[in-house]
Amino acid sequence: MREKPKIAFYWCASCGGCEEAVVDLAEEILDVVAAADIVFWPVALDFKRHDVERMADASILATFLNGAIRTSEQEEMARLLRQKSNYLIAFGSCSHMGGIPGLANFFTRDSILRQVYLDTPTTENPNHILPGARDNDGRGQLSLPDFDDRVRSLDQVVDVDYYVPGCPPLPRIITAAVSALLNGQLPEKGSVLAPDHALCTECPRKDSKPDKIALRQFRRPQEVIADEAECLLAQGLLCMGPATRAGCEAACIQGNMPCTGCSGAPGRVRDQGAKALSAIASLIDSQDEAEIDRILATIPDPAGAFYRYSLPASLLHAKRGV
Ligand code: SF4
Ligand code: SF4
């Protein structure tokens, strides 16, 4: 009997949502199991790192790796799974672009450790102990992975073959990716496995988007009950649709929430945050500098909004000095 292809799933700096997305395939996961052997999936199956180390190089058809890279252990696992896999697939925004954990690149490593272990109001740490890679608490030697200076996307650490976008990827995108993989119908190496055009082009509200939008104020979703038929950007809500890749069926828009940009930019755009910034800036209805500043101040966290998922993969990578 012909051996089934092997696939693996792994997580690095991840919230677990991408693992949920695989589970959300529901009965379709059975089709995956029927067509392939899942040989490594720490969240669901009891395989260990040494099981992967024992596998022959390139013996796994594909590894779907979610989460960004922040620790030495994550980097080691990314390198190991790269070595053991024919295809390494960056799965979800964190792996694709650095994602939400990548927002940590606005802060230094030391300030993060201080905030988490010393400065939060609920922290009790009278001896001001910060975790180190190797520690001895008197009862024995403790080894922890190194906490790197910055968050990196997967392709900033190892060679990546394909990207499955989204936070998390939608079931339809996942099944299309798995099916292309198992049927040998993968596109050119380096492709993002989703349509290569902006979300606005497939948004159910695209016909209500005016040719020219002129805004004197931005509004946050909690400040307004948005009209369910009209373009959200035209209503002053910061919608990243013009700078975001399609393929998600405009799931957030269908929930009357603006797109936050989790699928990254279409292929022709090098820097999603810069593209979004230029698209949004052109909508401001004023030539007066003070008035422009007042309008921009209605966006409370511009860097976080425009680079919410893409800071590590952007041209900036991080805040200066981090
Ligand atoms: Fe969680 Fe989104 Fe990152 Fe997946 S892409 S691990 S769902 S934050
Ligand atoms: Fe849809 Fe947002 Fe584009 Fe408007 S800006 S058409 S709501 S994706």
Describe the structure.
- This protein is of the alpha/beta class.
- The chain has 3 domains: 6-100 and 149-183, Rossmann fold, CATH 3.40.50; 113-146, no CATH class; 199-306, no CATH class.
- The protein is 28% helix and 13% strand.
- The chain has 11 helices and 9 strands.
- Strands 2-1-3-5-9 form a 5-stranded parallel sheet, with helices on both faces. A two-stranded antiparallel sheet has the order 4-8.
- The longest helix has 13 residues, at 72-84.
- The termini are far apart.
- Residues 14-15, 17-18, 66-67, 92-94, 99-100, 167-168 line the site of one iron/sulfur cluster.
- One iron/sulfur cluster binds next to loops.
Spell out the helices and strands N to C: EHHEHEEHEHHEEEEHHHHH
Enumerate the distinct ligands.
iron/sulfur cluster
Annotated CATH homologous superfamily of the largest domain: NADH:ubiquinone oxidoreductase-like, 20kDa subunit
Supply the CATH architecture of the largest domain: 3-Layer(aba) Sandwich
Cα-atom Rg, whole angstroms?
Answer: 22 Å
Question: Which helices and strands, and how do they pair?
Answer:
Blueprint: E1 6-11, H1 17-23, H2 28-35, E2 37-40, H3 49-54, E3 60-66, E4 69-71, H4 72-84, E5 85-91, H5 93-97, H6 109-119, E6 134-136, E7 141-143, E8 147-152, E9 162-164, H7 171-182, H8 251-254, H9 272-281, H10 289-296, H11 302-306
Parallel strand pairs: 1-2, 1-3, 3-5, 5-9
Antiparallel strand pairs: 4-8, 6-7
